[in-house]
Amino acid sequence: MILTVTLNTALDVTYHVPRLLPHASHRVRDVRERPGGKGVNVARVLAALGHGVTVTGFAGGPHGEVLRTSLAEAPGVADALVPCAGNTRRTVAVVDASTGDTTQFNEPGPAISSVEWTRFQARYQELLGTARAVALCGSLPPGLPVGAYAVLVRAARAAGVPVLLDTGGEALRRGVAARPDLIKPNAVELAELTGSREPLPATLAARRRGAHAVVASLGPAGLLAATPEGTWQAAPPRALSGNPTGAGDSAVAGLLSALAEGLDWPERLTRAVALSAATVQAPAAGEFDPRTYEELRGSVKVTSGQPD
Amino acid sequence: MILTVTLNTALDVTYHVPRLLPHASHRVRDVRERPGGKGVNVARVLAALGHGVTVTGFAGGPHGEVLRTSLAEAPGVADALVPCAGNTRRTVAVVDASTGDTTQFNEPGPAISSVEWTRFQARYQELLGTARAVALCGSLPPGLPVGAYAVLVRAARAAGVPVLLDTGGEALRRGVAARPDLIKPNAVELAELTGSREPLPATLAARRRGAHAVVASLGPAGLLAATPEGTWQAAPPRALSGNPTGAGDSAVAGLLSALAEGLDWPERLTRAVALSAATVQAPAAGEFDPRTYEELRGSVKVTSGQPD
Q1: Which chain A residue has its CA at the smallest distance from B14's CA?
Q2: Fewest Cβ atoms closer than 10 Å to its Cβ: which of A75, A154, B151, B263?
Q3: B249 an active-site residue?
């Protein structure tokens, strides 16, 4: 199985309003709620691709319970979440029907105690025993040491399990130093990590900081990869409009599944770009459209850059 | 005891953000959650005034459970809520720290089945047996007949229990025709009910539609009352700045408690205006500041209008 770790899981709530007016009162027409947090989203895409996938991380309180009940209904996703005393956070996305734009509110998440963190590490160690690959995804909840991902990266490497890290800020900086197999920063995270806003130099600089391979997501321009085997750029055949929510998580699922299947870099990037683009074009935020995915797989352009 | 009815209870969530920017992503700094819905807010104020108070209405699902757990911790408020299969709604208030303004999102609420409605009416009938007064508050959840409040008004009158109705739109129109003892519309609700935007004519018109007494809330200008004993205007001694959230619910609590204590109209209005103003000036939304309340009680100006 493939393991995804979401230390700060979320109950993602979507509100549809006719028009968002600051400082006004809105009747919400439509409320949707689903399990979220980057690793949970990645798991859903992996399951849709036919991979056995297990999710771990923390879940607790009434929101944690709703999340786990709902996760139990997701086909192909096994729940190995570790209970915590605090209440799992919500995120609220307000969709303005007049523009299609989304305004997002992210709660900070429950405070995790050191006992809970120790308990999680034991569970993670156990899960690594049967994992073919692991993705460590998203923000850290309050209370966890900022070096938490570095600890999890080292444990995966010691167990011989390929590890992808997808986070930002100081958690990324510390995690990268533990030498993960792959990181997938977006432009902002990459600039924070390296101090450079130039995609290619920044991607190469991120490798020098410790990541074996770096796949930077450049939004509509696709992905830029700096790896021990060389550098590549992968782009969709045309500009795609739609909702970018979840496109990064789909890219992670594409990279990780292709890695677990032993595919080479151009194939990994092709899959990641096609999935990502199929997510942007899907009618529901964070889901991918299988037909668009199949159609785009054949037309992603992968260009080899200078050898690294 | 005093009974308050909240058919569409809510879990009121407050998010504090540094600045609300439409179409941006916000990290919420501070999350607060408390039981809400107008009748629940009224009950909290009544309990703070030293009255025994019972809340009824519907609560269900995970949010209903959180609401009831939290209500159990509210001193002096007895829980007689009736379970429903649907999930109690949330409201989300986003407070912009840069301006102090609030942007509000109100979920519609759970669909109530006819079996649940019948079960509620039986419980309500039972509770009327020991109630000195009853307040019917807020919006109707989906599934209830629009004449629901009319049914509850008639039952209270048949039981000889004074009944206050605080709602809007068609539910108010239908409820008023059942001849409640008192309604407390705000300017918008009053205009919807009567077609007039002139406070005094509209208040008198609302009486002709069936309400024995009408107390219209005019925001910072205070209250305007049209009753069988005459008309009065009651205003705070000075303009008060602050958060108007919950001021209307405090006015209802003031009117209802004074009515239950057998006070006359000027005393009822004085209490309602002082509580309402003390709520506007309280640091936390929807709570009243007891010191401001005590201070203002002595200085509310009540003016008698022409006899009705």
Answers
A1: A107
A2: A75
A3: yes
Tens digits of per-residue pLDDT, B234-246? 999 888 777 788 8
Q: What tokens does B307 get?
A: 């006899």
A25–chain B Cβ distance below 8 A for any pair: yes
Residue A111: alpha-carbon gap to chain centroid: 21
- Of residues B200 and B283, more confidence is placed in B200
Helix runs in A132-264, H state only: 148-158, 169-177, 187-194, 199-208, 247-260
Residue A99 sits at φ, ψ, to 5 deg, of -125, -20
Task: Tell me how far apart the alpha carbons of residues A76 and A73 are, in angstroms, rounded to a whole number.
Answer: 9
Inter-chain contact A17–B105, Cβ cutoff 8 Å? yes
ipTM, interface predicted TM-score of the complex: 0.86
- List, in sequence order, every residue forming a beta bridge with A303; answer none if it has no partner: A233
Residues of chain B in contact with residue A21, where contact means CB-CB under 8 angstroms, are 103
Tell me, what's the pLDDT at A244?
80
How far does the CA of residue B24 sit from the closest CA of chain A (Å)? 5
Report residues of chain A scoring pLDDT below 70: 306-308
Q: Is 3.40.1190.20 the CATH classification of the domain at B2-7+37-85+114-304?
A: yes
Backbone angles phi, psi at A283, to 5 degrees: -65, -35
Catalytic residue among A249, A264, A289, A308: A249
Give pTM, 2 decimals: 0.87
Q: pLDDT for B121-155, tens place per residue?
A: 999 999 999 999 999 999 999 999 999 999 999 99
Q: What strands lie across the sheet with A30-36, from one edge to the other?
A: A30-36, A10-17, A89-96, A102-106, B25-27
Chain A interface includes B25 (CB < 8 A) = yes
Fold entry, domain A2-6+38-88+112-304: UDP-N-acetylmuramoyl-L-alanine:D-glutamate ligase (3.40.1190)
Which of A25, A62, A105 comes nearest B106 by C-beta?
A: A25
- CB atoms B103 and A24 under 8 Å: yes
Indicate the SS3 state at residue B69: helix
Contact list, A99 vs chain B (CB under 8 Å)? 23
DSSP string, A104-116: EEE---PPPPHHH
Domain spans in chain B, listed from the N-terminal domain onward = 2-7+37-85+114-304
Could you say which residues from 67 to 106 on chain B have a Cβ atom under 8 Å away from some Cβ of chain A? 92, 94, 96, 99, 101-106
